[in-house]
Design brief:
Elements lengths: L4 E5 L4 H17 L2 E8 L20 H19 L5 E7 L2 H11 L4 E5 L6 H16 L3 E5 L5
Parallel strand pairs: 1-2, 1-4, 2-3, 4-5
Helix pairs in contact: 3-4
Amino acid sequence: MQIKKIACCTDFSENAEMAFVTALDLAKKYNAKLFVIHALPPAINYQLTDAEWMLPYEPEESLIVELEKRMDKEYGSIIGEQVDYKLAILSGHVSTEILRYLEEKNIDLVVMGSYGLSGMGLVFFGSVAKRVADKSQCSVMIVRKKKE
């Protein structure tokens, strides 16, 4: 298996951080380009009635700018000049956008945490990892936290 492009999906959770460390280590080992991806789901205001629900066409630009700053601080500053990398913010249905991006960039390996944030995020990201593992055209590595 030739690994030239590695993607890492993040939701800034502890498991996503472990996936990032693993992906960075693999990118160094294989001299591969690293793509760090954050997918921003569409916002829905659940206080509105069914008739008033509207999905925004694009997320707020200020939120994207803040995410770009956070990704650069948390990932770009760590990667530095160690490997070639790209930080990407996607918008839309999370697993669909991740799968589209992986195919578009011809990624060889994607590294993900087994689950993300707690509560509903746990259910949400867990389903994302499962769907990406099931539907991806590239290999998928699921990183888990060791039980103590």
